[in-house]
């Protein structure tokens, strides 16, 4: 089912736009030299064929244009090659697609050459204005250019062009000569996209992101409107909605009692789901897809909320507005702690700087039951099983997290008083706080308190029932007894120990 972005601010975004959009932005563009065209013929930028390249890094390198011809290419051709990058969908393997786009731009020599060109902004505008979204169909290359029927593009590639515009890496796009035209083009793009069912969260978020940037630059806005637009831009347009009266976000309480801010985000279209599946398999053929792409939840939500029992899907960001900590609240209590124990680590958190801090956090993953592997949701990409180092490059290195060893008291159905002989009593673990999430089995032990090494004589204490977190027993002789419960994870690690001292009397 398709979900639409709320559009209560679009009257603001696009008011005062002329209905007329210049069809051909003036630009001095020369045709490519035929010899340079022949060199590009077998490039993955033209063929989209990356077979024979194993790693993502190798595939990125295969998409570079030989430096010997790069400077000879006209600016228009550079823009078209950016729109042909077969790995453009990597942008959406990041929680913030602008971060993914910047990785692609920084590591693609065609874009680096484009940045140098004085007519880069004009050529980008010309290309963006020439895209016809009104006839987009659910096929691999659904988008065409006006008057150029042979030139068709994937949706993710056009999104990359829009992310380039939104990134301001070509700053002249937003200067006084171009910004009004950009506003008109973006209005037309949004109106065409929202009328086509192939565009969901991905396709609609990019013109909204561009429009947010435009309005912050040219409109006089009240402080509340400005705040919400700024927050949308910080998220790359992906984990926020445009609705001044009701931001669809809420706080949820985690196992350690801390509250984290989450967002409710619309789903991708069926076309976008399939496109992200395809780009995942092209980029990382060795991973295993566990469930389809989705924009309703991300890696942090999967690792830290869904796998901890909060099954409603959310988009959970590491940092929330005003740069406050968010994700780290989850391990601020006694539940998880950083460890160097790779054998027993349950989760890993990736970060992109020299020090581990909230603003550097990029990704979260959980340990898979398949030895050596982890499982995680890559941005809006699918849920994936992968090796810990087989991830997008900008995720960085990682810290391991282990369930904190918990040492507590057992609850007793008799309360804290004396237990009567021959009375059935239940001893249970307090599961409301401090209970590990991967308990495979438990053991209950009863011993004499006067000599903890001695097991109770057969018949003095009888265990009638056990489960992972409770035991039912009765005592046939008065005395002081120690009751122990040890919890073990599936890999055999002792993760918790509870105890209780029971006084049993005849009366």
From TrEMBL:
Keywords: Signal. The keyword Signal applies. Coiled coil: none annotated. The keyword Signal applies. Transmembrane segments: none annotated. Residues 289-399 form the DUF7689 domain. Residues 1-21 form the signal peptide. It comes from the Bacteria. This is DUF7689 domain-containing protein. It comes from Prevotella illustrans.
